[in-house]
Amino acid sequence: MIGKHWKYLQYVLRHKWYVFVECRKLGLPLWVGLLHDWSKFLPDEWIPYANYFYGSEVGISRGRDETGYYKPGESGDDAFDLAWLKHQHRNPHHWQYWVLIQDDEDTRVLPMPDRYRKEMLADWRGAGRAQGSKISTKEWYLKHRDKMILHPDTRHWIESQLGAVSLLLWLVRGKWPAEDEEGKE
Ligand SMILES: [Zn+2]
Q: What's the pLDDT tens digit per position in 119-133?
């Protein structure tokens, strides 16, 4: 019983450590790295996460594809899905936080303030290291790029940080990524 909580605690602390290091590299203040993912310690996130990842033998890769990304709609665990939703709503470093679902108009996407987009990048880099991912953050981003709803400003910033994303996409698709964005504006 205590085993899964212990294993999950070790995972969360390892994740926090790597994200902390990446936050510092991006010049974020100490407290940003220290507070990162604080809400994971609330019972309504902690318990469903510990059950989901360490309640069985699968471990932290459960419900993720080979790159560590959560597979949409495949968790099969309603308690986990609710905890993940709460986590997104409590933590502005998740891009989902900035997606505004409007009552009867189209979804709007707000730009992420610099502090949060930096923390998001640190989170991606740190998560990759904590999970022992074999691929780079850029490769990871490119695989999932089309599923992420980002404001064009946020997307440009992220892609300039990751480097050569535009060039790669241009080689593959024959157009610059910014051109994709224009139709959505
Ligand atoms: Zn988070």
A: 999 999 999 888 888
